[in-house]
Amino acid sequence: MTYNIALQFEDGVSRIIPCEPNELVADAAYRAKINIPLDCRDGACGTCKCHCESGSFTMGDYIEDALADDEAANGYVLTCQMKPTSDCVVRVPASSAACKTEVGAHGGKLTKIERDSATTVSFSLQAERPLAFLPGQYVNLMVPGSKQTRSYSFSSAPNTSELAFLIRDVPDGLMSTYMRKQAQPEDFMMFTGPYGSFYLRPAVRPILMLAGGTGLAPFLSMLLWLKQNPTDHPIRLAYGVNTNEDLVELETLAELKSHLPNFEFFTCVVDTDSGHPRQGYVTNHLSSDDLRDGNVDVYVCGPPPMVEGVRKWMSGVGVTPKSFHFEKFSSANEAVAA
Q1: Which domains does the chain have, with CATH numbers?
Q2: Helix ranges (DSSP H) in the chain
Q3: CA 206 from centre of chain
Q4: DSSP code of residue 61
Q5: pLDDT higher than 70, residue 203
Q6: 3-state SS string for 209-249
């Protein structure tokens, strides 16, 4: 059995490499032409010290000067002595350029385009081969007919060749205009990635997901992964939008709920004329109980004001979650205006 080792570099680039059960991670990286900082190869210098965020492994011999006991207890490893016993996520304290690797370049054909509402578009690409990424990550997708790219999170599960995206339809936006007016099945699109530190960590405690608008996309990827890799811990998703027509993928969420008995979700709408049973922001419909006295991992994806609003809400209820992961996004047009 071959394991997938996700190498996370300081500059946000990810490379996922195969590693055999009895192969050292440093050797697997070298075989993939990735030069993790390395010197002695004997567990004596500590040059290849990295942090294993998730996964299991065995360690060979090393001296304490290279890796102290408290570091080992907190997940630090020497890649020259690390052999995986499962898929792993390893943070490398160097940039991808320093490790002489580049982000992967990929391509795929459009297979589906759905204009779900006046404010969203979903589409799928058939990639040339199954793509490994961490659920929640994104790619930079090149807009056909231009040299510009836009960043979008996957809304599909990892390790498949059918890649799905859910994007906001921005007035006069470059990708939005292409998707609304020009895109046709079989169009070829190029993209680079995966990128990002917003991804699902091991499910070792309850999970609270807070999505704003098309910030739902990475959570769909996470939930699809959890469908294939179930957990007994509770998962709650709060999905907030501005208007009723912004609500999309509700059937997908219902289908996921039917397969994940410990998953529940609710929606809310900001528009006070919406008639929706829950109006306002997601934080209006949460309580300190959702933070479980801090024994919870919180994930937030949405516009910057939403992320900051969640921070203020947590501060107001006086509970600090075990971990807090977030992804802020805005359109290129909004960024220019700002």
Answers
A1: 3-91 (3.10.20.30), 105-195 (2.40.30.10), 207-337 (3.40.50.80)
A2: 25-31, 69-73, 174-177, 217-228, 250-259, 304-317, 332-337
A3: 18
A4: -
A5: yes
A6: EEEEHHHHHHHHHHHHHHHHCCCCCCEEEEEEECCHHHCCC
3-state secondary structure of 317: helix
Is the previous residue joined to 21 through a cis bond, with omega within 30 degrees of 0? no
Cα angle for residues 180, 217, 167 (degrees, 5° grid)? 15
Do the Cβ atoms of 107 and 127 come closer than 8 Å? yes
Q: Is the pLDDT of residue 334 over 90?
A: no
Question: Residue 102 — pLDDT band, cuts 50, 70, 90?
Answer: confident
Q: Is 151 left (phi over 0), alpha (psi -120 to 50) or beta?
A: beta
Indicate the pTM of the whole model: 0.86
Return the structure tokens found at 324.
Answer: 């807090």
Nearest to 212 by CA among 249, 238, 244: 238
| Cα-based angle 311, 313, 315 (whole degrees, multiple of 5) | 70
Between CA 137 and CA 89 the distance in angstroms is: 13
On whether the CB atoms of residues 125 and 110 are closer than 8 A, the answer is yes
What does the alpha-carbon distance between residue 98 and residue 90 come to, in Å, rounded to a whole number? Answer: 16
Tokens of 14: 């990810």
Integer angstrom CA distances of residue 284 from 17, 238, 280, 310: 43, 11, 6, 10
| Buried residues in 150-183 as b, exposed as e (16+ CB within 10 A) | bbbbbbbbbeeeebbbbbbbbeebbbbebbeeeb
| Tokens representing residue 145 in the block | 């007919």
